[in-house]
Amino acid sequence: MLKEILGVLQDDPSSQRRWFHDDYFDLFVRETGGELTAFELCYGIGSNERALAWIRGQGFYHDGGISDSQGFIGARLGPGDAIESDPILARFERAGGGLPESLRLALEGRLREYALQNAEGAARRARFRRADWQRGGGGQKLQDKRA
């Protein structure tokens, strides 16, 4: 289950940056006025880390791996397949169950949109690289909203 990491560096007073983490995903989102404006979903942590990013007005890009590899979002979907048959999307839906509902629904919509595009073409970079602010713990603590 994704947990929110508190104390994330805020670099733009007009928006809020948030970070959610579990053993497979790191999810970085930016919201303006409570609305999703950008996200980066890092997956495969500790093995072949990849990242799918979306920015409103700019669209999607994917870092790490190639589009026809099995571990790529949407790569296992065939024409007419149920979106839930993609193992990465199914895993995200389980992990994201505790996210705020409006954020979770917005993310699931974007992930479905990307997967249905069939993820054609190569990744932007063959190896995923995190931004400086995404590296290390920096003293942030996990927030467990179940407690």
Describe the protein:
The structure is a single chain. With 147 residues, the protein is α+β, with helices and mostly antiparallel strands. The protein has one domain (3-130). The protein is built from two helices and seven strands. Strands 6-5-4-3-2-1-7 form a seven-stranded antiparallel sheet, covered by helices on one side. β2 (16-21) and β3 form a beta hairpin. It is globular. The two termini are 13 Å apart.
- Ends: how far apart? 13 Å
Helix content: 10-25%
Q: What would you call the structural class?
A: alpha+beta
Residue share in β-strands: 25-35%
Total number of helices: 2
In short:
With about 150 residues, the protein is α+β, with helices and mostly antiparallel strands.
What characteristics describe this protein?
147 residues, 7-stranded antiparallel sheet, 2 helices, 7 strands, globular
Secondary structure layout:
Elements: E1 3-5, E2 16-21, E3 25-32, E4 35-43, E5 50-55, E6 59-63, H1 87-95, H2 101-116, E7 142-143
Antiparallel strand pairs: 1-2, 1-7, 2-3, 3-4, 4-5, 5-6
